[in-house]
Amino acid sequence: MEQHRTRPPRPGARRGTPGTPPLPPQAGRARGDGGRTRPARPGLPGPGTGAGADGSAKRRPGPQRRPPQSPAPSARRLPNPRLTRLGGGVFAAVVMFLLGCLDELLFGASLTAYGALFVPVCALTAFWVRSGDLTTAPVVVPIAFAVGLLAVAEGGEGVSGHAVGLVTALSTEVGWLYAGTLLAVVIVLVRRVRLLGRRRAAAARQASQASPAQSPGT
Fold first, then answer.
1. How many CB atoms are closer than 10 A to CB 180?
2. In whole angstroms, how far apart are CA 107 and each of 118, 119, 148, 150?
3. Partners of residue 116 on adjacent β-strands
4. What is the rounded distance in angstroms from the CA atom of residue 205 to the CA atom of residue 113?
5. CB of 137 within 8 A of CB of 88?
6. Which of 8, 57, 178, 202 is the most buried (most CB within 10 A)?
7. Are 109 and 149 within 8 A, CB to CB?
8. CA angle centred on 48, ends 42 and 54, rounded to 5°
């Protein structure tokens, strides 16, 4: 009988699977580990790191958040009240009467000092009256001038004596009265012109915004 020669098994080939090529050692290790990935070695750059010039791992800087900017301190503004017709008249009359009393205490009822104090009161009244009541400022300031003269004008006894002293003070200090009233008129006119300019600019802006919206439909 003839004896069949058996070939020796190839190194690395599995028994029972003839013709199977030998597996590389890396695949065998992977299978032996159960399919788990090997952890990265210390010192090797990970997915979020980059290698430096000396081979050490450096972490990439993340997005930097800018600190919130603090609001700029609001500039201090002068008081800008809006007086109505009645408010403007009451303000001017009360202030002039108080200034008249102060003039009598400090300057001995000096009409010149009283007239000089009347001019800035006219300016403040014209500045602080609201836009809808601008025409009332030149009207209320002469009345306030007469009210303040009650504390300054020198007169005789009784109502008639006070009336004569008031008329005399008005006639002698008419220059201050005209100056303060004229200043109020100028301020009111300037404010009126600026108000009309702002209204025209707003109307032109609205017209320019409405024209592009109507052009596609036409």
1. 28
2. 15, 18, 15, 16
3. none
4. 49
5. yes
6. 57
7. no
8. 55
Q: Burial letters for 108-120: b for 16+ Cβ neighbours within 10 Å, e otherwise?
A: ebebebbbebbbe
Global pTM value:
0.58
Residue pointed to by tokens 């008329």:
167
Q: How many other CB atoms are there within 10 angstroms of residue 3's CB atom? A: 5
Cα 176 to Cα 61: distance, rounded to the nearest angstrom: 75
pLDDT at 3 over 80: no
Which of 142, 147, 152 is CA-nearest to residue 112? 152
The gap from C-alpha 117 to its chain's centroid, in whole angstroms, comes to 36
The size of the chain, in residues, is 218
- 8-20 burial, b at 16+ Cβ within 10 Å, e below that, comes to eeeeeeeeeeeee
Q: Of 125, 145, 122, whose CA–CA distance to 133 is shortest?
A: 125
Where along the chain do its domains lie?
A: 85-205
CA 26 to chain centre: 69
Q: What is the pLDDT of residues 160-196, one digit of tens each?
A: 777 888 888 888 889 999 999 999 999 999 999 998 9
